[in-house]
Amino acid sequence: MQRLTLSILSLSLAAAVNAAPAPVEDASGQSSQYGSSKTEQLQRMLNASNRVQLEMQNRIDALQQEVLDLRGITEQQSYQLQQMQNRQRQIYDEISRLSDQLAAGGTAAVAAGAGSAAAAGISSLSEADTYQAAVNLVLKEKEYDKAIPAFESFLAQYPQSSFAANANYWLGQLLFNKSDLAGAEAAFTRVNKDFPKSSKRADSLVKLGMIAARQNQNSVAKGFYQQVLSEYANSAAARLAQQQLDKLP
């Protein structure tokens, strides 16, 4: 009985072995099952690499926008401080003028001077409010398309404003983000030529280099980057210019 059981088990095992399908080999002698597995593994690795690259690009885009927002916040704070200092000087000047007129006994002149100062204050406030409203469209409301005509209107109304350089830079940045390279180039060029002492000039030169590079004008782009490195060494703009310069052939 035990021998019969062993014989049956042996026959069953042999049948199972004979029934198992042999792997099909390709011309190279390797099994197609192995090749398919290898291909699937490579495809998964490629898909994973693509996802990582996409995530990195999205992160870079987010960081660029964050830098733009932070620059705007810094500019807004500088603007508010400047406004406070200007107003303080105006008050001191007005007190001094009124004191002098009062000492001279010119009551009528005092009244006229006060009216003139009030009118000047209203005019200055209107200019500042117009600029600040355009900035708020970018920083607070994120209405970038509406901010473009707002800055254009401000520059048309106040071309010689103390905020004109910053307004041109904001306008150039917004147009650059919309790939309007011609409009952006015009705005950044105004900062470069009309406001040589502006804190935005170095950044504008970098952007002019980036625009030239996008238009395959590599020699022009190199000229702008080298100008930044020469005139604004050790600045954040110079570091960015060097990075962009290293990318050019």
From TrEMBL:
Coiled coil regions in record: 46-101
Family indicated by similarity: Belongs to the CpoB family.
A cellular component term, taken from the record's GO annotations: outer membrane-bounded periplasmic space
Name listed for the protein in its UniProt record: Cell division coordinator CpoB
Keywords associated with the record: Cell cycle, Cell division, Coiled coil, Periplasm, Signal
Species lineage: Bacteria, Pseudomonadati, Pseudomonadota, Gammaproteobacteria, Alteromonadales
This protein's record includes keyword Cell cycle: yes
Annotated source species: Paraferrimonas sedimenticola
Signal peptide stretch: 1-19
Record flagged with keyword Zinc-finger: no
Entry's Gene Ontology BP terms: FtsZ-dependent cytokinesis; protein trimerization
Start and end residues of each YbgF trimerisation domain: 39-108
Function: Mediates coordination of peptidoglycan synthesis and outer membrane constriction during cell division.
Chief localisation class: periplasm
Subcellular location: Periplasm
InterPro entries per record: CpoB (IPR034706), CpoB_C (IPR014162), TPR-like_helical_dom_sf (IPR011990), YbgF_tri (IPR032519)
